């Protein structure tokens, strides 16, 4: 999962892009980058690390220009090397920079295509492939004879959408032209459009992964970018849009609402906070129906995503809500740590139990989801070590049994604790005295209640049903090679050595 942002304004955008990436940091902590357009040239800074570490004052002073895009990243199929930090850049045609949130499921075919049309890619990233496919279509349309019109840009996006499969939200910056942003035909990955009027009465626009980035930067949420839609904002601030794909249907990733998005965001017409409160309501009702025999002394969230859910459960059950864990806010999100050993090590560094809230009590721990189970098992151990008499574990999401192929780092089925296991087996593995999962219908209804027009979701991690073509066993075998923790570690080592060889010439 990544965060993307693009801004067209009439004053410098470097600080606004920085602020936007800071509030999108939860979507990726591996690397960050900004590209601005200044008098016909790109200004760029990107590197591994948090936004606050990547951009120092000297970098910000160099990022001049009134138009720019930004990206914060964590890796899925690619490695964590600095070479794969975004945005990416190609010089032909015109000069294009691009940042991408999501994952392309036909990246191998796209690599063959790029090789056949003599467009070289220098990384393992599917985002660089996407950039080159877009550049190739734009080059064919304009023949490099003139800067593209809005309709020519939309024609290029139509060509891209016909060639790529997967989930994607894209922002691109073209020298002398402006920003082109587009979303996959199912709207799997989020993208929103914002607007503000500056002090001189001129229109300024912003696109971003989540609405919270708009509000923090002083933009008002206009709407979501539609599935298959492209937005073009010219360098002088004119907005154009068009649907650039066939058979578009909104099926957003339901896991965004469970875990990734900030609660103060609104996506696809849904308040993330309200959806999570609904999740708590439905999970509490399930506890009342099916687990009324459990004697619960306190409801304790695993901070922070599940806090709103746990509060609602406690309210409905009439049980005290307690903060039983103190979170070290300077430790990254363990779910998106790139390696299993690093994830295991980070859990106890991230959370510390308050012993008095556990000693002699029967506690219900509430988390947003259980993925690999590593974190859940260690948290149950911590609760029992703190003196809990019984530890029950509730998940606001159903059993995660299948890999995600649209940009979330759930690499292989074998690494998912729920794959080919019963709930009783999972409960035993994490050491809990009872395990309660949210029903899929209840999860989706929790989101749908905020926007009844959301008839369907991308819910493949729970069902194994993939809504784009080409996702089959052969593809998963390929993913196993690319995405396992061992594969990532090996790829990172190779990238590190290749970089040393390149730069030491």
Describe the protein's architecture and organization.
Mg(2+) binds at residues 305, 367-368. The protein has 17 helices and 21 strands. It has 505 residues and is of the alpha+beta class. It is globular, with a radius of gyration of 23 Å. The chain starts with a strand and ends with a helix. The model is unreliable at 498-505 (pLDDT under 50).
Give a summary of the structure in a few sentences.
The protein has 505 residues and is α+β, with helices and mostly antiparallel strands.
Percentage of residues in helical conformation: 25-40%
* DSSP summary: helix tally: 17
Mean pLDDT: 92
Strand order of the largest sheet: 3-2-4-1-10-9-11
The total of beta strands comes to 21
**Main sheet characteristics:** 7 strands, antiparallel
What is the rounded distance between the termini?
34 Å
Determine the structural class based on helices, strands and strand pairing.
alpha+beta
Low-confidence stretches: 498-505
Anisotropy-based shape:
globular
Indicate the proportion of strand residues. Answer: 15-25%
Cα-atom Rg, whole angstroms? 23 Å
